[in-house]
Design goal:
The protein is α+β, with helices and mostly antiparallel strands and about 250 residues long. About 30% of the residues lie in helices and about 30% in strands. It has 2 domains: about 5-75 and about 215-254; about 80-210, no CATH class.
């Protein structure tokens, strides 16, 4: 394989991947509780570096390097801006913590999306998925739907109906946020559910946490990725043209 073509191809692939990640962030800029993804890369080792075999490479290739590889995408867990909604069942977390909701198997999923509502049975559910919202003991929360206007949620997550304490909203933390994986619909899965513990983070009633995506910044990075992709694609065309002349013109003279 022509080494220059390979390096340019890795540049096209990695920047195409980078564009996909940024585009997904932009598509979710208005999604409540969304945490943006960060495209990461790592250096590809040369054959000599990877196999510890100096006979498989040369000083020239060692100086050029082995190009780029895509690394696993990471999630940026920084706090998003809070937006007041006036809806008593909307809740936002300030600080390190996640709401707990019940998955289809009775386990726990985490989310920063605090857009809640009551179903017909008075159970508190996540608006976009219908997952049951859990209390501090990981049990579903049930409220009286006829007294919806009297529901209040305090900063410690305590839920009162007509000044009577009925439940405490479950807010949980994890020891290693890097072990969180996205499941779609703003739901997160933690690798070891047994290590999920109650959080001391405070909550704000009548507000929602916006996505931590700055569209202006993401568009700037997207244009940079596009320019780099085009530059690598142009290098492929240039090298292809050079090889064409080598084969058809120089080859004829020879």
């Amino acid at each position: 394989m022509i080494y220059g073509l390979y390096l340019s191809a890795t540049g096209v692939l990695t920047n195409s991947y980078r564009q996909d990640v940024i585009s997904n962030n932009l598509a979710n800029a208005e999604t409540v509780g969304y945490k943006k993804n960060v495209a990461l890369f790592q250096q590809r080792l040369t054959e000599a570096q990877a196999e510890r075999n100096p006979n498989r490479s040369s000083d020239l290739l060692e100086n050029i390097g082995g190009g780029l590889l895509c690394a696993p995408t990471e999630m940026d867990t920084t706090q998003g801006e809070l937006e007041n909604t006036g809806n008593k069942l909307d809740v936002a977390i300030t600080g390190d913590g996640y709401f707990g909701v019940q998955d289809a198997n009775g386990g726990i999923k985490l989310t920063r999306n605090g857009s809640f509502q009551l179903d017909r049975q008075g159970r508190l559910i996540l608006s976009n998925t219908g997952n049951l919202v859990l209390d501090q003991d990981r049990k579903p929360i049930t409220l009286d739907p006829t007294q919806r206007s009297l529901i209040e949620i305090a900063s410690d997550g305590q839920i009162t109906v007509a000044d009577k304490q009925v439940a405490k909203l479950g807010v949980f933390s994890v020891p290693d946020p890097k072990q969180l994986t996205k499941q779609g619909e703003t739901l997160l899965n933690y690798s070891d559910p047994n290590k999920i513990t109650p959080s001391k983070a405070t909550v704000v009633g009548g507000a929602l946490e916006r996505a931590n995506v700055d569209p202006a910044t993401e568009l700037t990075v997207l244009m940079d990725a596009q320019r780099q992709l085009e530059a690598n694609a142009n290098m492929i065309r240039y090298q292809d043209s050079t090889l064409n002349r080598l084969v058809n013109d120089v080859g004829k003279v020879a």
